[in-house]
Amino acid sequence: MPRALAVRLTCQACTRRKVKCDKKSPCTNCLKHGITCVVVERPRWPRGRSGNQAISREQDLSDRVAKLEQLIEGLSHSKRGTGNGSSSGGENTIPSSGRSPKSPSERAQTTEDLFHLQPSVIRQSADSRERHPENHPELPSEPVRRRILVDIFLRQVDPILKVLHRPSLCAYLLEGKPYLDYAPEHPVPAALASAVFYMASSSLAEDQCLALLAERKETVLARYNDETMTALARVDFLVTNHLTVLQAFVLSLVSAWLRRGDCKIS
């Protein structure tokens, strides 16, 4: 990246060691310890974005985290969420079903009818894997499963947990477009997608999970918990400065909390 178009950030070694970096190439700390200095740069923002707007963005994130803490505290006293209706007829609730699992095509159509979303395609990540035996054709394929989970998240989770920018998320997961300014194969949006699938799975009741995904809820949760933890580790979620990674981590925490307790978002 041309120097005039880039802003140099703390190098990877200093970030990992949590020490101050002078941002030279190589930096003084790396020279002193005889290690390779891997320079980290970001594009230079248009004038006006790096000052008050950055502060405003951090404040907005802080406010959202505070609201999330309040929501979790409220959920700890009640198994019912604070949506716009009751669990039996509310707008944000997926109806329960005691019927046997449907075929993938019927299941996709049912989800479409429930959420009134236009048909779209979810990009399947390169490292996603099918874990279903070939002798179970009634189980939905991974792309169909993820489409269903995105619909569930948008309908049942997003109206309550406002931690993501819905238009950007829809463009990424439903239209196959890049997420925000990330490159198409960047691991950060992939981590967010995994957290969305995990959160959506956590919001389902057992009978809903059987009806829509043809699997027990715990089986689905275990799969997406593993996928999310692997994706977060891949993007160094403990030391990263990506807001998207923090959002994915918050979703994973709420999902894990719902999984441990017998609570649901409805």
Automatic annotation (TrEMBL):
Ranges of Basic and acidic residues composition bias in the record: 126-140
Pfam families: Zn_clus
Zn(2)-C6 fungal-type domain: residues covered: 10-39
Annotated region (Disordered), positions in chain: 74-140
The keyword Ribosomal protein is assigned to this record: no
GO cellular component annotations of the record: nucleus
Record-linked Gene3D superfamilies: Zn(2)-C6 fungal-type DNA-binding domain
Domain of life: Eukaryota
Molecular function terms, GO-annotated: DNA binding; DNA-binding transcription factor activity, RNA polymerase II-specific; zinc ion binding
Keyword Heme annotated: no
Localization: Nucleus
InterPro entries per UniProt: Sec_Metabolite_Reg, Zn2-C6_fun-type_DNA-bd_sf, Zn2Cys6_DnaBD
UniProt keyword annotations, A-Z: DNA-binding, Nucleus, Transcription, Transcription regulation
Protein known as: C6 transcription factor, putative
